[in-house]
Specification:
homodimer; alpha/beta; eight-stranded mixed beta sheet; two-stranded parallel ribbon; 16% strand
Chain lengths: 416, 416
């Protein structure tokens, strides 16, 4: 297996003191460790390039039933990983990114479902990507790692399903870029998806979305420490560029309202009479927050991976092969669908979800759509809004009933 | 006089071939040249620093009447200048930034009003700023130029009024950062402002607004070519940082809708079968547009000036000295007010203007408020929307009537 040992967060991150080591909170899947699945069959990519082999980092929660009918694939967004739920066995302070959603008795109930988290191909948390060694050269791939598309991820993940002997997922689910993967699964492998759950996502980026990605890329590409993408060979890291890229991202993940309520115009360290400092150091709390987020990100995320992920976002456009007609692109889909959007999400505003809903209805697909009036912007998909989780929980209860997976054995989460 | 010869746009900018040199279009003020007014009395700034002397670049259009009652001060936004209207006599392709608004027979009718454009103190188009020579050292001020506030600009501009013998402006007017200056004029010099016209502006930046400014500043400050602000001494220009800063700005100036209609997902140079290029070069038209805007800006705009202007935006908050109560801050104002906002402006959304309107009404001020349903986002304040210009034109006709300036002598613009 060709893997790199990279953790989803920096080694210097402080432990969460609220979590006592080795004590499992109610509703948690407990301590988890990734597996690294190696696939030696070449993968032909959308670009035409061929990846000779690859490794994917995977975590699973719950038990696959005998019929192999209860599997759920959770796809991740830009900077997340396979570590969806529970506490990393090696670093118990590292809680999965969708831990509030996935666990025993939670919306995605691991007492009944077998849940798989996969680090995307091309990412930097254990799956093969730009930081991995290119077997042909013995050096890190770096800038020479091939660009990937959402469809490439689906094909790579399909082999994970094969590995577990899963012919058809009970559900494929994701938020944001993860939602694109779920949607692409329903189009690309229609007979392998029972239900498709697409949260805070889109069927194609708008010009404004692409524009923000381009700003992020320019910040990275023009950082002298990027060195054409071969920064590893030069012993540098384009930390300034990555930091600016992340700051831009963070603004788009939050609503104007939530930034106003979290930070407002609060000053960080005003003079004795509340005076401004009259310099370009941190004046306002929001500046402190953004710089902190940017710097933290630049210490643990790989720049080539960030470029690759933003380009995959830009390129996703299943309607493109159908003259821009999304309903034609979705004609092949056989899944039932749950779409969720958030009122203050201006990155992928509700209209993006509504467009998908309309295209599905045109194909007479069974669609449930929830537009949640939440203040948190795009980030809402990661948060524990009660109505949002109740919708997802109710939807999964329906899936469980249809598949005869039985009733909930315990109640946590929004029902608790 | 201490001035620098810098033009508002790069010398390499192509001439607008639609404008024949020396032919004055209808409604244009014609060929104009700046004056450079030197003020040798020290100016004490909000920061407590003292600027020993300064020069302001100024253009004027129309004639000051004998009563000196018909003067209008036009304040500019981030990257504009004193060149508000007409064609620069030296570079006739350089049209003033608000030429569609100011001219004979236009909304701000130079047949009746004497209009003054002033390049802000600290800017880089002829007024004293970071690119000017510090008389104490004989070197450019660079990073040592003092930070300025909107109030400092008002005080500096008041001396321009004194220079022309104008005790009271018929109107002070501006959009965006220029609108802040108009508002500050009404608070700071209440007896010198007859009417105050505030377009697409705000009484204080939101956390999100500050966040975008901070991203722009980080891009500049962390560019190695910035060299602590002393790039001139090192013969460098932080072009990459300035370019990224400008790209971020451009996204916030436009609505999602207008970017969708201007650029959509149009590809720049797709392969023979419409294929993606699978690299980080320009793939989409919107990327080309942004890079072009960024690169152009980095060739003509000064980085220290950009930092200074964004900080002045952040700091503007007249309510701050009144416990956050904007109505108290506006209690001193005596002017009548016109506020204009645009429905798709998400940089300074209509709610920012409505807050000012409410605070003025609480003070029983006379307020006209127009919320224009225009698709262009923040940039709408610079464009020629017919309803917008009709509102401004009607308002100025009212000012002219009250001041006995007579009726329009010719009709152009929205009435034409």
């Amino acid at each position: 297996m060709t893997t790199t040992a990279v953790f989803p967060v920096p080694a210097s991150a402080p432990a969460d003191s609220a979590i006592e080591p080795r004590i499992v909170p109610e509703g948690s899947v407990g301590f988890v460790s990734p597996e690294f699945l190696h696939f030696s069959e070449p993968l032909t990519l959308s670009s035409g390039q061929v990846l000779p082999s690859y490794t994917l980092a995977v975590e699973t929660y719950g038990q696959l039933n005998a019929a192999r009918s209860n599997a759920v694939l959770v796809c991740h967004a830009l900077n997340a990983s396979h570590h969806v739920a529970g506490m990393d066995a090696e670093r118990p302070d590292q809680i999965g990114w969708w831990d509030n959603m996935v666990g025993p008795g939670k919306a995605v109930d691991t007492d009944r479902f077998f849940v798989i988290g996969v680090n995307n191909l091309g990412s930097c948390f254990g799956s093969t990507g730009p930081t991995s060694i290119n077997p042909a050269t013995g050096q890190p791939w770096g800038a020479s790692f091939p660009l990937l598309t959402v469809e490439d991820w689906v094909h790579a993940q399909a082999r994970v399903a094969d590995h577990f002997g899963i012919g058809r997922f009970a559900a494929v689910m994701g938020g944001s870029l993860g939602g694109m993967q779920a949607l692409s699964w329903a189009i690309t492998c229609p007979d392998r998806v029972g239900d498709c759950i697409v949260v805070a996502s889109t069927a194609r980026l708008s010009a404004q979305n692409i524009a923000f990605n381009e700003v992020a890329r320019r910040a990275i590409l023009t950082d002298p420490d990027f060195r054409g993408g071969d920064y590893h060979a030069h012993g540098t890291v384009p930390a300034n560029g990555l930091s600016v890229a992340r700051m831009v991202g963070h603004i788009t993940y939050q609503s104007d309202e939530v930034m106003a309520s979290k930070f407002g115009r609060t000053q960080r360290a005003p003079g004795p009479t509340g005076d401004y400092r009259y310099n370009y150091d941190i004046e306002f709390e929001v500046e402190s927050y953004l710089r902190h987020q940017g710097e933290k990100f630049s210490r643990y995320f790989d720049a080539n991976t960030y470029l690759l992920l933003t380009r995959a976002l830009d390129y996703f456009d299943p309607a493109r092969a159908h003259g821009g007609d999304l309903s034609k692109a979705l004609a092949a889909a056989q899944a039932r669908f749950l779409l969720v959007s958030f009122s203050t999400d201006w990155r992928f505003a509700p209209e993006h979800s509504r467009e998908i809903v309309r295209a599905l209805l045109k194909n007479q697909r069974e669609v449930t759509y929830a537009e949640i009036d939440a203040p948190h912007g795009h980030d809402a998909f990661l948060l524990g809004d009660r109505r949002y989780h109740a919708v997802v929980q109710g939807y999964y209860d329906g899936i469980a009933a249809r598949l005869g997976l039985g009733a909930r054995r315990r109640v946590t989460g929004v029902l608790a």
